[in-house]
Amino acid sequence: MMADEDGKPVVTFGPKSGECAVCGKDGPMKCGRCQVDFYCGRQHQVQHWPQHRKGCGSFELRESSKLGRYVVATKDIPAGAILMREIPLVVTPTYGPSEDRPVCVGCLVEPSVARQCPKCGWPVCGDACSVREVHQPECAAFQRAKYKLPKVREGGMSLNASVSAISLRMKKVIIMTKVLAELEPWNPDLWKFLGALRVTLACENQARGGLLRNLQSDHSPLENFLESADQMRISAILMVHYRTFKKDCDAAVSWIRDVAGLKWLTAEAVRRGAGICFINSNSCSAGLGRKETAVFAGMSLLEHSCRPNTDVLVWQREDGPAPAAGSTEYVLVASRNIARGEHLTLAYLHNFLLGSVKRRAQTLAWNFLCQCELCRDPSQRGLHLEAWCCAACSGKKKKAFPVTIHDMQNSWSCSGCGETGSLDATGGGAQGAQAQAKRLEKRLENYVGSTAKVPLKVWEQFIHDALWPRGPLHPTHSLVLQAKKAIVELDGVLVLKATLTPGLHCTINHPESRRVAAYCRDLLAVSDAVCPGVNWFRQQLLLVHAGVVEGLVEAQMESMRTMRPPRALEKLLDEMEEIHTELTRIAVSPKHKKTSLGNLEEIAATRNAFSVFK
Ligand SMILES: C[S@@+](CC[C@H](N)C(=O)[O-])C[C@H]1O[C@@H](n2cnc3c(N)ncnc32)[C@H](O)[C@@H]1O
User: Fold this and answer.
1) Is there a single domain that holds both residue 212 and residue 314?
2) Structurally, how many domains does the chain consist of?
3) What is the pLDDT of residues 474-487, one digit of tens each?
4) Per residue in 205-249, pLDDT tens?
5) How remote is the CA of residue 545 from the centroid of ligand 1, in Å?
6) Per-residue pLDDT tens for 394-452?
7) Is residue 588 part of a domain?
8) Residue 348 shares a structural domain with residue 214
9) Which residue among 86, 368, 373, 376 is best mutated to probe the pocket of ligand 1, counting the most ligand atoms within 8 A of its Cβ?
10) Does the residue 541 lie in any domain?
């Protein structure tokens, strides 16, 4: 195998100005080495050095035949250190099999009533969004090609009418190229094509084009996988998926050039744009309810691990309105202590997804099979995320394990009775539990893909049906965790909006609060086992948990007859203090830190108010 090359600096693309890291005033001076912190002058730069040096100049870019380019720590990095600060080179609406709803192409939020851009017909919230900078390049290109989505029915959220019209045009191309599957209304592929187009057009942009074209746009021939029989088998699977990746790129070329008519873009340029988009996109969610997927100059160079040591977080300035799509700043933060020589890694996919789903996505989109610590451990740090309770010996709490995590036939073996099976096979003893698990997987897929909001009681029924002895699953099975995550996210959106709106208390107060708080605790425990420390998911979970507990505190205070705090209230205040202490510890942006510190002060004030009566 080719030896790793000598390291080079990682080139990032960051904001031009920022707030002084010490006093918060305008900071015209930027650290020239890491481009992360800004200063109002030399004095504050010197004063900030002890903190700043933790992340500054702490990594370099290397290359190998196995991983392509990857990033390595050149010194020990403490958890919480900010390593990169970037604005995306391109943002696109998030794409994927379940993204079949209109998203505003200006602000990337799902509008309650979708309107259409008067010039190109793509969905927008209103006039302001149709003239947003982020939408202008494709809007101008569609106009030049005289391509416009047809008018949607009056007041219609659904773009079905326009999309059936697209389908008609698409069908001609399908017959021509035999590449695309028949498009259904508002087919998720359209978002993928828009992403590919945005990247293709942005490659022409003076400031960002060079950095974009530098990113990986295709997959290498995988010669490194030919070392053993096992690897040859994996290699064969990757080859099949590689062909699908190529077809996806070809489909983008067909749609952009033949359907939308942007003939002046060469097939080669569009294929490269599509490849860059599909390989390097990072779904950011942006914490603002946006469907934002971003491509970065620096952060897109990191390799995947299911137990990553870094995470991408939204950088929120202390004041001012939330930044528009395409100008949000993101930071790459060390989620735990990283030793010198360790590769910097990111989780491309959420850990609660079923292993089989993750592996399929990894092979399809990125053409590799993860060999990280978590993937090599069939018990997955004792959580058994993919194992079900064996029907024959579940009373003894025995579980059926995957035989090897990369086994594409999904073979399983029970740790109790030793029975084996395969998810792909039909019939047979242990297959009862397998079949039940498979049915639950389908049911969950339907809920996740549903256009209507799935109510809490439906999710709870799912958990009830899935858990042993009614179903074959145990509390930390991936499907159960995904259902709990969906419940927490139902309320999470509320909380996140509230935390970003000054003066608005982020409380959730409804009869289910206690159960939602319990789900938060369960998920935090799992998150601490697989992805502990400073990361976006833990931060969101803690915020939601804080909001729910705050709601419970308020309800408790309202119902109190005496001023003496009951033990229940003290316990809730303890829980809130614990959550906000952790949020303060893991906060990286000034805004989050300030909010959490403010909440700690409020908790202390509440305690003081009650202490008089003790
Ligand atoms: C976002 S890019 C990362 C940067 C890329 N290596 C480069 O050279 O530009 C994703 C690609 O990196 C490679 N890669 C990332 N993580 C990997 C892993 N854990 N194992 C093997 N290959 C990986 C795969 O080729 C994948 O398609």
Assistant:
1) no
2) 3
3) 899 999 999 998 88
4) 888 999 999 999 998 655 555 556 666 777 777 777 788 899 999
5) 34
6) 665 666 666 555 555 567 777 777 777 765 554 444 557 778 888 999 999 888 877 67
7) yes
8) no
9) 368
10) yes
Protein residue with its CA nearest to atom 1 in ligand 1: 280
Domain endpoint, select from 352, 367, 382: 367
Taking the CA of residue 69 as reference, the ligand 1 atom at the shortest distance is 8
Residue span of the structural domain in which 308 resides: 11-88+296-367
Residues 204 and 242 in one domain: yes
Q: Residue 54 has what DSSP assignment?
A: T
Ligand 1 center from residue 301 Cα (angstroms): 7
137/192 same-domain check: yes
pTM of the predicted protein model: 0.85
User: In this structure, is residue 461 part of a structural domain?
Assistant: no
Check which CATH number belongs to the domain holding 358 and give it: 2.170.270.10
In tens, the pLDDT along 82-101 reads: 999 999 999 999 887 777 77
Mutate to test the pocket of ligand 1, among 5, 8, 11, 216 (most ligand atoms within 8 A of CB): 216
Q: Are residues 40 and 139 in the same domain?
A: no
Which pLDDT does position 501 carry in this prediction? 43
> Residues enclosing ligand 1, CB less than 6 A?
67-70, 215-216, 219, 279-280, 300-301, 303-304, 366-368, 370
Give me the pLDDT at residue 500, please. Answer: 43
| Atom nearest to 302 CA in ligand 1 | 3
* Confidence at residue 549, expressed as pLDDT on a 0 to 100 scale: 86
> What is the 480 CA–ligand 1 centroid distance (Å)?
30
Q: How far apart are CA 182 and CA 187, in angstroms?
A: 9
The phi and psi torsions of 304 (rounded to 5 degrees) equal -90, 145
Q: For residue 349, how far is its CA from the centre of ligand 1 (angstroms)?
A: 13
Percent of the chain with pLDDT over 90: 39
User: Which residue's alpha carbon is nearest to atom 9 within ligand 1?
Assistant: 216
Cis peptide before 221 (omega within 30 of 0): no
Q: Write the residue with the smallest CA distance to atom 16 of ligand 1.
A: 303
Q: For residue 206, what are the contacts with CB-CB under 8 A and spacing of at least 6?
A: none
Mean pLDDT across the chain: 81
Ligand 1 atom closest to the Cα of residue 280 is: 1
Closest CA to 436 of 480, 470, 412, 413: 470
Cα 188 to Cα 181, 198, 242, distances in angstroms: 12, 16, 20
Report the atom number in ligand 1 closest to the C-alpha of 367. Answer: 27
Atom of ligand 1 nearest to the CA of 67: 22
Place of tokens 């209230």: 569
Nearest CA to ligand 1 atom 24: 366
Q: Whose CA is nearest to atom 7 of ligand 1?
A: 69
Point out the domain boundary residue: 291, 313, 333. 291
State the pairing for strand pair 303-304/29-30: unpaired
CA atoms within 13 A on the CB side of 26: 2
Give residue 308 CA to ligand 1 midpoint distance, Å. Answer: 14
384-409: b or e for each residue (b if 16 or more CB lie within 10 Å)? bbbbbbbbbbbeeebbbbbbebbbbe
| Whether residue 312 sits in one domain with residue 216 | no
Contact 217, 276 (CB under 8 A): yes
Instruction: Average the pLDDT over 48-73 and give the result.
Output: 92
- Of 72, 68, 29, which is closest to residue 47 (Cα–Cα)? 29
Average the pLDDT over 350-362 and give the result.
79
Tell me if 207 is assigned to some domain: yes
Span from the CA of 50 to the centroid of ligand 1 (angstroms): 33
pLDDT of residue 510: 63
Model confidence at 546, in pLDDT bands (50, 70, 90)?
A: confident
ipTM: 0.99
300 and 281 housed in the same domain: no
Do 575 and 492 fall within a single domain? yes
